[in-house]
Every structure is written in structure tokens, then in C-alpha cells.
Amino acid sequence: MVDGYNRGVSEAIFSVSGLRGIAGRGLTAELVSRVTEVFCRLYGPGGFALGRDPRPSGSWIKDVVQKVLSEFRCQVFELGICPTPTAVHFVRQRGLKGGLVITASHNPIEWNGLKLVHPAGRFLFADEV
User: Fold this and answer.
1) Residue 17 placed within a domain
2) Of these residues, 10, 15, 17, 105, which one is catalytic?
3) Any catalytic annotation for residue 105?
4) Rounded Cα gap, residues 12 and 29, in angstroms
5) How many CB atoms lie within 10 A of CB 113?
6) 3-state SS class at 43
7) Which residues contact 64 (CB under 8 A, 6 or more apart)?
8) Does a structural domain hold residue 16?
9) Residue range 54-91, pLDDT digits in tens
10) What is the C-alpha separation between 50 and 54, in angstroms, rounded?
11) What is the extent of the structural domain holding 37?
12) What is the DSSP letter of 107?
């Protein structure tokens, strides 16, 4: 079933659920950098939470996101490996400018992505994407 799910899919998908794709193929360092930059321009500078799931590709994606956040003089609150709701709650409780969670949720292990957390401690609405 996983093979059928991935067959022919090499591009990234962007929706209200965030950005996701096969790490290193559709989901590239350049794309992660661009999305993070746009998010910073919309809500930064200031504090941003950064969490991730345990997928192996999360490490390089985290490095890309941190680099962009640093370039925009944003303070990074690195949460490490954590559940997505933890990062959402952290943004709301701390009054941060936003958050990024590196996860592809229910997708297969070779996938990864970014969920963008609004300063109000929720995911972005369709008109904000």
C-alpha cells in the first residue's frame, strides 16, 4: 500500500495542513527555506517554537529552518522531538510570533513536512495559506 501511495508523487503539497512531500525530492532544502522565510516575513521577528517528529529527515530540515529564523533575527525555542499539539500549546502559552513543526503526520516515513502555527496558537486558516 505504501508503494502505491508514493508512486508518481515527487512534488510537495501545500495546504491548510501545511507543507509536505518526500524529503529530498519534492520537499527540498530550498523549498523549506522559502516557506520559512515567508512565514518569518509575515509574523516575525520575535520568538518562534520549533518542534519535530522523529523522522530521520527532520534533522536536516530543522537545520534549514533554524538558519532562516536566525537570518531574520528570530529567537528559536527548540522543543526537540515533541507531539504537534505541544508546539501549538507552547506558542499560545508563551505569546510567540509563531511556530513550525517538522512532521508529515500520518504519511510514510520517507515523507516530511512543515506545519505552521499561527501566533494565536492554531494552524493557519485557508485564507492565510
Assistant:
1) no
2) 105
3) yes
4) 12
5) 28
6) helix
7) 29, 32, 33, 36
8) no
9) 999 999 999 999 999 999 999 999 999 999 999 999 99
10) 13
11) 22-128
12) S
- Asked whether residue 26 is assigned to any structural domain, the reply reads yes
Distance CA 86, CA 125 (A): 19
What predicted TM-score, i.e. pTM, was given to this entire model? 0.88
Beta strands 75-81 and 98-102, pairing class: unpaired
Inter-CA distances, 103 with 17, 41, 45, 95, Å:
11, 22, 23, 22
Instruction: Read off the pLDDT of residues 6-61 as tens digits, 9 standing for 90 and up.
Output: 444 458 888 877 899 999 999 999 999 999 999 999 998 899 999 999 999 999 99
Strands (E) across 3-104 are located at 13-15, 18-22, 47-52, 75-81, 98-102
The DSSP call for residue 14 is: E
Q: What does the longest C-alpha to C-alpha distance in the chain come to?
A: 44
Q: Look up cell 506558542; give the residue.
A: 91
Domain assignment of residue 8, yes or no: no
Domains identified in the chain, total number = 1
Q: Coil, helix or strand for 20?
A: strand
